[in-house]
Backbone:
């Protein structure tokens, strides 16, 4: 019979077990440290990559804007969306790489003050002038505008989608001159001499504005009341029937036809904006421009007007000047207003001295009011 094999003493087995446990613990610790280093490295790369991507994207949105269909869609996105990745990453920054929080801090002023074009102007409150108010009243009850009308007491009220507003204004302000041109309504303390639609500039058969000639301080002045086409219907086409239904419907999300229709709409809107800007520059009388332009306050179309006329809020407003959406349902209600779509521009011989936006109301568009005065005439020797 083979000799019996003696097992190791219990003490050796015990110390061997401890040694193995310590080795396993060290290996686990090394693996954990390696994994932690890899996670921190990935977190750093992801944060820096998103910051660079976001800065480039915001630059392209503001510089190229509507000339690319996708960038034109992003123009209408609430700016808070761009913060979401930073918000999601911040807890990991605090635990693993606190220094990365400075990247979020750097992105904050870029988005809030540069991209959103925060205005720092100091209005000239005490100076007299001509006060003009504009509002798209298609999505509101007119009585909700009354508190702002009463507090501002504008000399001229320019309304878009105002088919039902004219009679109300005539009863409410019997001393004013009220002129209705299609959807455009002008209620003025100053006599209106002429009025007519801009029939040469139309979208799907609807003139995009009206021209009013008035007499002010012995001079003929002109008010342009504008309503540029809205991209709402085209956005609905892009969205389709919703993500899940489009996926299972076999047409795909954002179908090629929807993209094609939207691109054609944007190209048409750019052409219409250029034609309108050229028409305004041909005006011989001092003029002011009011209305719902359906263009965010950055991008290519806004630049077409900003380069040629004085944006009253940009020159004499304080804050962001957001006018849309005045009131929304669901989660959007928590965001509040996030777009500046309604404008007052000073044309030939005018300069703004103050501008402000109506406090948020139960309406699609908040009103904008500005006071203007004639530019000082330069006397040549």
Residues:
């Amino acid at each position: 019979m083979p000799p019996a094999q003696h097992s190791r003493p219990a003490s050796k087995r015990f110390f061997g077990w401890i040694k193995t446990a310590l080795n396993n613990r060290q290996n686990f610790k090394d693996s954990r440290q390696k994994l932690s280093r890899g996670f921190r490295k990935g977190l750093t790369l992801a944060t820096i990559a998103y910051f660079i991507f976001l800065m480039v994207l915001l630059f392209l949105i503001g510089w190229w804007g509507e000339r690319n269909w996708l960038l034109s869609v992003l123009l209408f996105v609430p700016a808070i969306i761009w913060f979401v990745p930073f918000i999601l990453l911040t807890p990991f920054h605090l635990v693993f790489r606190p220094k990365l929080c400075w990247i979020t801090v750097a992105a904050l002023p870029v988005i809030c003050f540069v991209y959103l074009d925060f205005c720092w102007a100091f209005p000239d409150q005490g100076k007299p002038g001509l006060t003009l108010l504009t509002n798209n009243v298609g999505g509101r009850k007119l009585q909700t505008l009354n508190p702002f009308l009463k507090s501002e007491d504008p000399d001229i009220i320019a309304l878009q989608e105002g088919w039902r507003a004219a009679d109300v204004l005539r009863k409410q302000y019997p001393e004013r001159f009220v002129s209705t041109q299609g959807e455009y309504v002008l209620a003025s303390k100053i006599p209106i001499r002429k009025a007519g639609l801009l029939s040469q500039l139309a979208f799907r058969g609807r003139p995009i504005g009206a021209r009013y000639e008035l007499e002010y301080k012995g001079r003929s002045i002109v008010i342009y009341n504008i309503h540029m086409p809205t991209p709402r219907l085209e956005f609905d086409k892009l969205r389709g029937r919703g993500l899940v239904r489009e996926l299972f419907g076999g047409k795909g999300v954002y179908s090629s036809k929807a993209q094609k229709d939207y691109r054609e709409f944007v190209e048409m809107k750019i052409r219409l904006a250029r034609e309108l800007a050229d028409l305004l520059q041909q005006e011989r009388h001092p003029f002011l421009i009011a209305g719902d332009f359906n263009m965010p306050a950055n991008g290519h179309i806004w630049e077409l007007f900003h380069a040629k006329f004085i944006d009253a809020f940009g020159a004499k407003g304080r804050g962001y000047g957001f006018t849309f959406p005045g009131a929304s349902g669901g989660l959007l209600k928590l965001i509040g207003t996030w777009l500046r779509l309604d404008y007052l521009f000073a044309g030939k011989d005018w300069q703004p001295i103050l501008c402000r936006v109506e406090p948020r109301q139960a309406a699609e568009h908040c009103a904008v009011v500005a006071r203007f005065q004639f530019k000082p005439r330069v006397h040549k020797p």
Notes: The first strand starts at residue 119 and ends at 120. The chain has twelve helices and 16 strands. The radius of gyration is 30 Å. The first helix runs from residue 10 to 63.
